[in-house]
Automatic annotation (TrEMBL):
<dbReference type="Pfam" id="PF14337">
    <property type="entry name" value="Abi_alpha"/>
</dbReference>
<dbReference type="InterPro" id="IPR025506">
    <property type="entry name" value="Abi_alpha"/>
</dbReference>
<protein>
    <submittedName>
        <fullName>DUF4393 domain-containing protein</fullName>
    </submittedName>
</protein>
Length: 250
């Protein structure tokens, strides 16, 4: 004999149906309750935010819709209200809102994701979204160090954390080194100092990149001291936290 599953169904055609299964999990979104949360704050652009929330709900399959955790939903719409003029940030917050109302994804939505998005610019988000969403994938990274020809020691790091990964998707690719530092600070990526790729061609490509060559040419033009260059061969990869962030917010 099959087990009996008790279900309680609430709602009508005008309001998203809510289904409680065995009293443990409520599936469904009370749209008016969600919109009321937005209206309760004094946003000038609250109608626009409600439209975004409506769209976020619609992206979730009806069978997986659940009420969002207010610890995530409320700060997310607050930050969204400051970001509606940036399509990349707006989309990222919208995806976070949708995931917070998706039964399959909700358990992976970390409360800190809202704050993390607020500390990213559009280029950094595009860079993240260009990565393969697995922690096992490693990407090449170099540091350029400069020192006098006869100088001992490591010299001075002139360029830290350079890569061409995501270079074509960024509006300001000259800032990619700074972007990687910020992503590392936020624990979205990891940059171990004791690992590197065995394929040296990956690093040769970076060493010959126009950005690296332009810095070396500038040094030769402005400095009469004979200098030499050395490189640190590194890698960066997504953390599990970073992979979850992309899964939820992309």
């Amino acid at each position: 004999m099959s087990d009996k599953i008790d279900q309680t169904i609430k709602g009508d055609n005008n309001n998203q149906t809510s289904i409680t299964i065995n009293g443990n999990c409520t599936v469904g979104v009370d749209r008016e309750e969600v919109y009321a949360i937005v209206r309760s704050f004094g946003y000038i652009n609250k109608d626009e935010i409600i439209d975004i929330v409506k769209s976020a709900i619609d992206t979730v399959d009806e069978s997986r819709r659940v009420m969002p955790d207010k610890r995530i939903f409320v700060p997310a719409i607050q930050q969204l209200s400051y970001s509606t003029d940036d399509e990349i940030l707006k989309h990222t917050y919208k995806q976070l809102l949708a995931s917070s109302m998706d039964l399959d994804k909700q358990k992976y939505v970390h409360p800190s994701f809202v704050n993390i998005i607020s500390q990213l610019n559009a280029d950094e988000i595009k860079l993240l979204n260009s990565l393969t969403c697995v922690t096992a994938k490693s990407y090449p990274l170099i540091n350029l160090r400069v020192k006098a020809e006869n100088q001992k020691g490591l010299g001075i790091t002139q360029i830290k954390y350079f890569t061409d990964i995501g270079y074509d998707v960024c509006d300001s690719p000259q800032n990619i080194c700074v972007y990687l530092e910020n992503l590392e600070r936020l624990k979205l990526i990891t940059i171990p100092w004791d690992k590197y790729l065995l394929d040296t061609n990956e690093y040769t490509r970076l060493e010959n990149h126009p950005i690296i060559q332009s810095v070396k040419n500038l040094n030769q033009t402005n400095d009469s001291v004979r200098i030499k260059y050395e490189y640190d061969h590194l890698i960066f990869s997504l953390t599990q936290f970073g992979a979850n962030f992309i899964t939820i917010c992309k």
